[in-house]
Amino acid sequence: MSDFKVQGKVKALRWLRSMHKWLGIPLIVFFLLIGVTSILLAWKKKAELLPPTLETKVESGTWILPSQMVKIGEEEMRKLGRDPEVDRIDIRPDKGTAKVTFKTHFTEVQVDGFSGEVLSVGTRHSDWIEKVHDGSIIDFYTTGDEGAKLTYSTLISIGLIFLAISGFYLWYFPKVVRRLKGK
Question: Which of 43, 55, 95, 117 is 20 to 30 A from 153, alpha carbon to alpha carbon?
Fold first, then answer.
């Protein structure tokens, strides 16, 4: 094989190494952030990043209505001086409880599904960690839509794909160049 082809491959390899390095340096911060938050989310129950799900104190009976659960959660937030706008209710039939969560903060109110008694009020750390993980924390504190999350996820994913492919070629091309020089 001619020296011209070898030199072309070596030049391409140098360019790829430079691109890999200069894209990898800023992206490493985000990859570390995603990696750490992934570990925390995987271990969220063991690390107690969620308030433990409590069980009802009532043996049996009729469940209170979800609208009553919302009112109980809103009232509890008003007592604490927090925004009472409810995001969702997570009903746990096997435990006899419901978890009321809120749109503008990471608080959870656990309600007894039969009596309506407030069983606990706690912070859902895993919710804000998840928002940091996927980039939606920016949207949460600014616009409320998903623009930052989509941009963040797309750019980080493209960067990861590029670094994976370029990393493969940085490993593989030197072998090709050595083989070409040997011929």
Answer: 43
